[in-house]
């Protein structure tokens, strides 16, 4: 019998590689969040650091791998209220993100007094 690629690539949840992968994601996320905080809180910082971009790239790659190899794992389609809930939550996140970035960039530059 011919086995599918999915069964060859499946790693059980209790396997130590999953713990190692999650720990690596945690460490990468900590560095990315630090750079994100610096970008938001320091008005003189003009761009995100490389660890933040690496975190975003790894998360996008993980998402694409899950989409590609997850086909057939859940044979029933998602209920529409779940899909609409995720779309709504994503929309709120994007609006909040844009609000925080714009608000942090509108404040006066460091070391300048508004009364002068």
Describe the fold and architecture:
By secondary structure, the protein is mainly α. Helices cover 67% and strands 0% of the residues.
Précis, in short:
This protein is mainly α.
Q: Structural class from helices and strands?
A: mainly alpha
Radius of gyration: 21 Å
SSE arrangement, N to C? HHHH
Helical content class:
55-70%
How large is the count of helical segments? 4
- State the total count of DSSP E strands: 0
Strand content: under 5%
**Termini Cα gap:** 80 Å
Mean pLDDT, as a whole number? 80
Q: Categorize the overall geometry.
A: flat
Give the secondary structure arrangement, pairings included:
Blueprint: H1 5-9, H2 16-41, H3 50-69, H4 80-106
Helix pairs in contact: 2-3
Question: Which properties best describe this structure?
Answer:
116 residues, mainly alpha, flat
């Amino acid at each position: 019998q011919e086995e599918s690629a999915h069964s060859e690539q499946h790693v059980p949840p209790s396997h130590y590689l999953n713990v190692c992968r999650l720990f690596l994601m945690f460490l990468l996320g900590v560095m990315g969040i630090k750079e994100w905080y610096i970008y938001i809180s320091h008005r003189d910082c003009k761009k995100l650091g490389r660890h933040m971009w690496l975190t975003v790239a790894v998360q996008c790659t993980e998402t694409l791998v899950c989409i590609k190899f997850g086909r057939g794992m859940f044979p029933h389609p998602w209920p529409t209220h779940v899909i609409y809930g995720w779309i709504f939550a994503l929309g709120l996140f994007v609006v909040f993100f844009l609000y925080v970035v714009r608000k942090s960039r509108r404040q006066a530059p460091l070391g300048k007094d508004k009364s002068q």
